[in-house]
Amino acid sequence: MFYSVNYEHLLRDGKNYKLGLRAGFGIKPQSGDTYYPLELNYLRGKKKDYLELGIGFTPSVADWKELSFGGRKEKTFQGITTLRVGYRNMNKDKKVMLRIGVMLMWRSVFINHDQQRIFFYEKRNYYSPATIWDGIGDNIQPWIGVSWGKIF
Question: Which residue among 16, 43, 111, 130 sits deepest, i.e. has the most Cβ atoms within 10 Å of its Cβ?
C-alpha cells in the first residue's frame, strides 16, 4: 500500500482539454520510504468526464544505494518513470474530483554521487553495469490507482 498527497495546477484550461502539472509527497508505511511524484497530465473531454494521459517521474529518497562500478562502491540515486492512462470525473458543482487509471512504472534512473554515470535502466543485478537493451520488461510494473480530491 502506498499513500500520497498531491497538488495539481492547470496550466491550460481549453474548451475540450486541460493540461496540468502535479507534484506531491508519498510514503510507503511498511518501510517508511518517501517519494516525490511529479507528473504532467493531459485531460481530454467535456463538462466533467475526461480521458487522462500522464507522464511523470518520481524520485525516491529511500533508494540511495551503494553499487559497485569497476570494483569501486558508489552511492546512487534512483527514480521511477511513470506513464498513466485513466478516467477522471471533475464535478465542479460539488468541487470534487475522482479518478481511476492504470499506470506503468519503470525503475529508470541511476545517478552516482559524482554525477559521472547516468543510467536510464535498472538491471536487477545491482552489481553489473546496466544497458537499455537487457531485459527491460523485468523492470516495468503495472499499477492500478484510485484517487479523489477537492477542486479549488
Answer: 43
CB < 8 Å & 24+ apart, contacts of 11-19: 16/44, 16/45, 16/46, 17/42, 17/43, 17/44, 17/45, 18/42, 18/43, 18/50, 19/43
How far apart CA 152 and CA 150 sit, in angstroms, is 6
- Positions in the chain short of pLDDT 70: 61-77, 108-139
Exposed, middle or buried by CB within 10 Å (0-12, 13-18, 19+), for 27?
middle
Which residues constitute the domain of residue 37?
3-150
The pTM score is 0.74
Asked if 108 contacts 121 with a C-beta cutoff of 8 angstroms, the reply is yes
Q: Among 95, 92, 86, 77, which residue's Cα sits nearest to residue 42? A: 86
Please give the Cα distance from 65 to 40 (Å, whole number). 28
